[in-house]
Amino acid sequence: MFESLLRKWGWDAASRQQARERGLEIDRLLHACDRRLCLLPNHQQALAPGMRISQDYLSTLTEKLPPVLELSLPSFSRDRRLGLLFAGPSSLLELLEGSDALRDFFSHAANGDEAWALMTMRRSETGRFGVAMENGELRNDVAQTVVSFDGHRLQMPCASEDSFHRQSGERALHVLTAVIAGQLSLQEQTRLQLEAEQGRLQLRKLALKSAAHVVLDEQDSDDLPETLAGVDQRLKEIRPLLESLRELNSLEGGLDTVRHILEHPRDYFSLERVALRLNRMGVKVGDGDEESTLLQLEELVLGKERPTRRALMAVRVRREHVIELRQQFGA
User: Fold this and answer.
1) Other CB atoms within 10 Å distance of the CB of residue 16
2) What is the model's pLDDT at position 133?
3) HEC profile for the chain?
4) Residue 216: pLDDT band with limits 50, 70, 90
5) How large is the average pLDDT for residues 179-204?
6) What is the rounded average pLDDT of the residues 204-219?
7) Beta bridge partners of 232
8) I need a surface site. Which of 70, 117, 154, 302 has the fewest CB within 10 A?
9) What pLDDT score was predicted for residue 234?
10) Strands 114-134 and 137-158
11) Predicted local distance difference test score (pLDDT) of residue 19
């Protein structure tokens, strides 16, 4: 009974060890974002609940990934997804040969001959007019959307699928840390920009009120209001924004920003399911096209104010397949 009470209160050995590990994770995160925040005496207590929320959330993300794609020459003939993601075997070889992470993985014999990894890509859609059959008639002015992928990268190669899923949560936390650092940096940059604008507006106001008309550099004043009323209005708009940003950029404000992101990770780090039905040329088609391929992706959305997107897919690579591609398509 005494042991159950200790577990309930979080005072048992396992709970204390977990709390110590979470504390180390918090300090590592703050050192990567703004190490000054570690000086605040309450930073551990403030961030512990959010760190638990983020870790629980991030650990489930890889369960949403689509079926694993094998990166090999034979896969081009048996898995049509590969032909939609790469221009051909040569571009696949370029990815495999150019991946430092994969090269380092295969350089250690203990890792074995098979790697599970996360492939990231940029997806783009381009509109064009092309040739297509409509109502039994061949037309060359049909609006089409072409989907293409570039910027392929391999990350986090692992020796097994289980290891891949375990490490995915840790990797996701590193990415979320970068998002937090970016948010703190964005707040600071915005504050500096607004303070610079405020200074230029005050000079403009002096120039407009002065009989001598103080002359400003034309390039520095092109975007400033032309009238005294306009300058006063813009100064009035800037003032509360600057007050808010100065508060956010204090140590306590920075800690609040980190806490908020950790407690709401879905707003800054999420996966969105994308299902595309494409023909062999990468053109979007309807569900009734028998020659089309259903391409399912998860897209990682990072950030809130200025989000970035990357398509994700779990892949498997064998050493022998890299050698086969090199023999046939290498320089």
Assistant:
1) 12
2) 58
3) CHHHHHHHHCCCHHHHHHHHHHHHHHHHHHHHHCHHHHHCCCHHHHHHHHHHHHHHHHCCHHHHCCCCEECCCCHHHHCHHHHHHCCCHHHHHHHHHHCHHHHHHHCCHHHCCEEEEEEEEEEEEEEEEEEEEECCEEEEEEEEEEEEEEEEEEEEEECCHHHHHHHHHHHHHHHHHHHHHHHHHHHHHHHHHHHHHHHHHHHHHHHHHCCCCCCCCHHHHCCCCCCHHHHHHHHHHHHHHHHHHHHHCCHHHHHHHHHHHHHCHHHCEEEEEEEEEECCCCEECCCCCCCCEEEEEEEEEECCCCCEEEEEEEEEEEHHHHHHHHHHHCC
4) low
5) 91
6) 66
7) none
8) 70
9) 92
10) antiparallel
11) 79
Residue 6 has pLDDT above 50, yes or no: no
Six-digit token pair at 146? 């072409």
CA separation, residue 106 to residues 94, 170, 260 (Å): 16, 22, 40
Residue 280 — pLDDT band, cuts 50, 70, 90?
confident
Question: For residue 174, how many other CB atoms are within 10 A of its CB?
Answer: 13
Least confident of 68-72, 128-132, 198-202, 279-283: 128-132
- The reported pTM is 0.73
Other CB atoms within 10 Å distance of the CB of residue 146: 16
Residue 154 zone, left/alpha/beta (φ > 0; ψ -120 to 50; rest):
beta
Going by C-alpha positions, the residue among 302, 306, 315, 272 that lies closest to residue 120 is: 315
What pLDDT shows up at residue 134?
Answer: 62
| Backbone dihedral angles phi then psi of residue 118, each to the nearest 5 degrees | -105, 125
Instruction: Report residue 233 as tokens.
Output: 């209005």
Largest CA distance in the chain: 86
Q: How confident is the model at residue 114 (pLDDT cuts 50, 70, 90)?
A: very high
The beta-carbon contacts of 180-183 under 8 Å, at least 24 apart in sequence, are: 180/29, 180/33, 180/257, 180/258, 180/261, 180/262, 180/268, 181/32, 181/33, 181/34, 182/303, 183/257, 183/261, 183/268, 183/303, 183/304
What pLDDT was estimated at residue 173? 86
Calpha distance 96→132 (Å, rounded): 35
Q: Give the position of tokens 């840790």.
A: 170
